[in-house]
Amino acid sequence: MRLNPQSIINSRFGIGFALVLGRIMPTSLGYPLASWAAKYISQRKSWNLIKAARLNQWVISGQRLSAKELDKAVHQAFDHTARCQFDLYRHIQNPLAMAGRVKESPAFEALLKDYSGDPIPGKGILVLGMHVSNFDFLMHYIVTQGLRTLAITVSNPGSGYRWQNDLRARSGLEIVPASKDTIRMAERRLQEGECVVSGLDRPVSGARYKPRFFGVPSALPSFYVPIALRAKVPIVIVAAYKDDEDCYHIDLSEPIHLMPHDNRQAEIEANAELVLAAAEKFILRAPTQWSMFYPVWPQLMSQVP
Questions:
Q1: Which residues pair with 153 in a beta bridge?
Q2: CB of 236 within 8 A of CB of 250?
Q3: Residues 26 and 52 in one domain
Q4: pLDDT (tens digit, 9 = 90+) per residue, 185-230?
Q5: Same domain, yes or no, for 46 and 121?
Q6: Which of 95, 210, 235, 278 is deepest in the core (most CB within 10 A)?
Q7: Contact 97, 91 (CB under 8 A)
Q8: For residue 133, what are the domain limits?
């Protein structure tokens, strides 16, 4: 049986090993080790996660990068991700150290203030996170800052993802896997004025709708569109990027108000594309900080240099 490196990296063992290293290893050793691992992984062009990374970086470049330029972009993406993972496991049990690495935008500060107290009926908001820079660092940080939220995650996650969710839950995040029941729960919470969080940019197989992302039909989910429409709440996108001083800047998009449509497919895809257009801006701030290693545009895989 052929080993799946992505499964090993995301397994309970892989995450547990990284967690132990992060706790015991100083940054002066952790960063070089992370960079070595990133270089090794990024050179394995036969691995599915590398193929996916090359595809995704190629499309967001406007399909302009050459094979050599893609090699460089993918290496930079994995180097950034490896350092982010080290930062996460280094600081996951030290909220003060975590806070010292974060710079909040005024819009994000306002979100924390508005949704850290008691909910106000009619003022709910759906927050969609992106895998830009240190996604998990951001999730842990917002909980330590008092944000009360319900988080919807992928259904039937693997053992590694379940452990990641356990770590998030220990920080105080209320986590539920996506299902019909939890979707209804989310809608009710939103109508009651609470904040609900989910992911935006991890592709799904067999998706019925294909919203355009960077001008190309994608395999990204659109489940959030009917949730926001039924609950009658706006959507905001939250993302982070890392600066040259190793600080994470957390920013928030303007509220995105969805519009109902008589045609179901047009309603889903047009509103998803409205959200994804805002997401594109976050990715283009720092393209190689987009840590998405699943194929977002699988139909273009054979065209990648």
A1: 177
A2: no
A3: yes
A4: 889 999 999 889 888 999 988 888 999 999 999 999 999 999 999 9
A5: no
A6: 235
A7: yes
A8: 103-286
